[in-house]
Amino acid sequence: MTTTAYCDRCPARARVRAELPAGELHFCNHHIREHRDRLAAAGATLVILAGRPAPILSRAAARVA
To answer: Are 25 and 8 in contact (CB under 8 A)?
Structure first.
């Protein structure tokens, strides 16, 4: 079964999952660029969703799921 994740801020498809101690959030390219610094400061691990390139590697540590 394949599921499609959508951004938690808008109806776009999610490109990144932010894993936080309290849970996880999904973001599109636009919103991950907007929030990546605050997520990194909060200790989030940013995971690029498979098959969905996201331009976030330049600023935050990330791994590919």
So the answer is: yes
